């Protein structure tokens, strides 16, 4: 028997492993099984070179546990080791600078293991003792047993083993007995090892018999050694891709389509990415892409490793150029990973462009489900934005699809405003904005449907990238003002006239904390709607963009600012104005005369102050001016109260406002009930 000390520069190797790696201790099984797979593949390589003449057709890795003996054993029939190789690969560990590094990365098991090549030593995270029983493939080799109890001391002795290969026997410590569980080990193997390239056997297959599960004589192989991504695309059919998708995500809906990645220069990269169906509310579960290194699972937390918008995709990426045992911070800064990320983005864009070019009808049918990926990519990746402009589609209210360039040609003649800007009209809800859409179409305009949660952000990006394009929601103004072709020649009310009429209609606007209404007056023609409710494009878009960003924000907390546009040319509006004049003229005329007189006096006093310093103005004039302004304010308030009272009691004015609210889908509950009852009264 040989005894000795493991060659490390720190006496604290095992306490460090147990203390710092404890939070990630289930990776021990990944490490030990991966080593066993490596040993098997090395033997295959030697056989292919003619350096080994034995049978390599039945290489397997076996995982078993013994609850009574408190052991977990991982066995392979791979290359094995001699006593000298154990001394070289197990007993000598380059561990310089260990303490500083371990302190820095003490919460990241992958970083520590990867930095020092400690894959085998991760077994001590759950073990009080580890045995290696191994026999080299070399002819005449002696089997040996290496044992270590978690101190730098070890012993090695000759033993018996029938065939080449290695057994790693982990004697589980009292703190880790949770791992002596069939389902626990099965779950870890399923997570990390389900696609390893060498068969991994875990117990026997089971079947139902006499109302219970019983073991059969057939080995339970937990992994698929040749998953779809390892094969050439030419060797796969659509059903193979679909089948593999459901192996990854058993409960998922059918994906929209897939992209098979197969790159060998300037780095190695294989994988299959799937576009799943995503709801329009953008409730997305990320962490669906699984990252592998030589078919060994690394992580499903791929933010920073693949472009942000592609974290919405599902599937697998495998690259031997991505080290197995590294921290996410390392992955995110590694130059190879950055190249891979950029390449994946390009491949996705190329595949989408190819689908659009070759199968446009199919592409259009899938657009509503697909667009969320493309929009997210265009918002977060400038290079992808440029590529996506070839296949990004606008859909109009007639369900026809256009590229950006095609749509530009379609609307150029009819929707270019007086400032030479191309105006894209759009709706976010065809049903709720039906009246506005129809009004626009009657004028020969086309209207887009931009109804998803990313649309406000995307149209702002379009306007930023294309300054000669403007997006205007179809209900943001009356149709005459959506695309201004020339300066208006229609007469408008004076400021004083608007001030007198505003209280009448302001009085019948809804009173709540959700909306504020600003009354305006325009000549929309006798056949136009009597009243139209619109909303500022800027404010509404800011609120919508704020809503997707979450948390407290300035625009999100503000009420909706609505414009009530009163059509002064409409007969029904004129009827309200005539009723106002008839009822209030005797009351308002003296008030108006008084207000005019007071304003004239104020104007004279203000004129007398011109060119004088404050101390040069007589005190009597100051007091008189203050008094006049106070009287004037009272007269104005009295006038406003009378106009407001008239508006509140005028059923026609209320009916016209409610009609406008109804057209916008804003009349509900008790207000809707009152409107119906009032309608019946007015019809009688």
From TrEMBL:
Signal peptide: none annotated. Gene3D superfamilies: 3.30.230.80, 3.40.50.11260, Heat shock protein 90, C-terminal domain (1.20.120.790), Histidine kinase-like ATPase, C-terminal domain (3.30.565.10). One of its GO terms (molecular function) is ATP binding. InterPro entries: HATPase_C_sf, HATPase_dom, Heat_shock_protein_90_CS, HSP90_C, Hsp90_fam, Hsp90_N, Ribosomal_Su5_D2-typ_SF. SUPFAM superfamilies: ATPase domain of HSP90 chaperone/DNA topoisomerase II/histidine kinase, Ribosomal protein S5 domain 2-like. This is Chaperone protein HtpG. Belongs to the heat shock protein 90 family. It comes from the Bacteria. ATP binds at residues 31, 35, 76, 81, 96-97, 166, 328. Keywords: ATP-binding, Chaperone, Cytoplasm, Nucleotide-binding, Stress response. Residues 604-625 are annotated as: Disordered. CDD domains: HATPase_Hsp90-like (cd16927).
């Amino acid at each position: 028997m040989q005894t000795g000390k493991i060659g490390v520069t720190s006496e604290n190797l095992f306490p460090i492993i147990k203390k710092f790696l404890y939070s990630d201790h289930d990776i021990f099984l990944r490490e030990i099984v991966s080593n066993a797979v490596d040993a098997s593949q090395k033997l295959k390589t030697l056989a292919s070179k003619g350096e080994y003449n034995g049978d390599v057709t039945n290489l397997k890795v076996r995982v078993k546990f013994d609850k009574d003996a408190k052991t977990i054993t991982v066995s392979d029939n791979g290359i094995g080791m001699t006593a000298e190789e154990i001394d070289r690969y197990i007993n000598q560990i380059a561990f310089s600078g260990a303490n500083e590094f371990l302190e820095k990365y003490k919460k990241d098991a992958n970083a520590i293991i990867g930095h020092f090549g400690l894959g085998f030593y991760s077994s001590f995270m759950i073990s009080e003792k580890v045995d290696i029983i191994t026999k080299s493939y070399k002819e005449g080799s002696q089997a040996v047993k290496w044992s270590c109890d978690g101190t730098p001391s070890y012993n090695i002795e000759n033993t018996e083993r029938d065939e080449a290969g290695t057994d790693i026997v982990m004697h589980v410590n009292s703190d880790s007995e949770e791992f002596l569980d069939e389902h626990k080990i099965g779950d870890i193997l399923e997570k990390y090892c389900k696609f390893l390239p060498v068969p991994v056997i875990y117990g026997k297959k089971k079947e139902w018999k006499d109302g219970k599960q019983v073991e059969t004589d057939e080995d339970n192989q937990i992994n698929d050694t040749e998953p779809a991504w390892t094969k050439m695309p030419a060797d796969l059919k659509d059903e193979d891709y679909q089948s593999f998708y459901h192996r990854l995500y058993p409960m998922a809906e059918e994906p929209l389509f897939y992209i098979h990645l197969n790159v060998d220069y300037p780095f190695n990269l294989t994988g299959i990415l799937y576009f799943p169906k995503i709801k329009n509310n953008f409730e997305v579960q990320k962490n669906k892409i699984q990252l592998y290194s030589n078919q060994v699972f690394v992580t499903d937390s791929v933010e920073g490793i693949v472009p942000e918008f592609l974290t919405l995709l599902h599937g697998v990426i495998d690259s031997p150029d991505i080290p197995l045992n590294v921290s996410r911070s390392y992955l995110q800064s590694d130059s190879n990973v950055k190249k891979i990320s950029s390449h994946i983005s390009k491949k996705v864009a190329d595949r989408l462009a190819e689908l659009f070019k070759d199968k446009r009808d199919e592409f259009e049918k899938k657009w509503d489900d697909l667009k969320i990926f493309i929009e997210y990519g265009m918002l977060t990746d400038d290079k992808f934005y440029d590529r996506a402009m070839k296949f990004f589609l606008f859909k109009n209210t007639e369900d026809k699809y256009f590229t950006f360039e095609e749509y530009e040609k379609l609307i150029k003649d009819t929707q270019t405003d007086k400032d030479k800007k191309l105006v894209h009209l759009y709706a976010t809800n065809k049903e709720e904005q039906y009246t506005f859409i129809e009004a626009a179409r009657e004028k020969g305009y086309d209207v887009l449907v931009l109804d998803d949660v990313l649309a406000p952000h995307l149209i702002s990006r379009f306007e930023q990238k294309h300054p000669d394009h403007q997006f205007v929601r179809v209900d943001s103004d009356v149709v005459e003002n959506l695309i201004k072709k020339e300066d208006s020649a229609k007469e408008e009310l004076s400021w004083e006239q608007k001030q007198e009429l505003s209280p009448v209609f302001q009085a019948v606007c809804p009173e709540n904390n959700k909306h504020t209404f600003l009354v305006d007056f325009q000549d929309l023609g006798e056949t136009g709607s009597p009243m139209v409710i619109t909303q500022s494009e800027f404010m509404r878009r800011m609120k919508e963009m704020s809503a997707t960003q979450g948390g407290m924000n300035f625009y999100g907390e503000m009420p909706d600012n609505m414009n009530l546009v009163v059509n002064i040319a409409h007969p029904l509006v004129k009827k309200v104005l005539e009723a106002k004049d008839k009822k209030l003229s005797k009351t308002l005329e003296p008030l108006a005369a008084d207000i005019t007189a007071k304003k004239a006096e104020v104007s004279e006093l203000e004129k007398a102050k011109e060119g004088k310093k404050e101390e040069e103005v007589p005190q009597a004039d100051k007091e008189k001016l203050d008094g006049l302004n106070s009287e004037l304010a009272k007269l104005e308030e009295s006038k406003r109260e009378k106009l407001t009272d008239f508006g509140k009691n005028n059923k026609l004015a209320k009916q016209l406002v409610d009609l406008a609210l109804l057209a916008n889908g804003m009349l509900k509950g008790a207000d809707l009930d009152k409107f119906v009852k009032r309608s019946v009264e007015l019809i009688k």
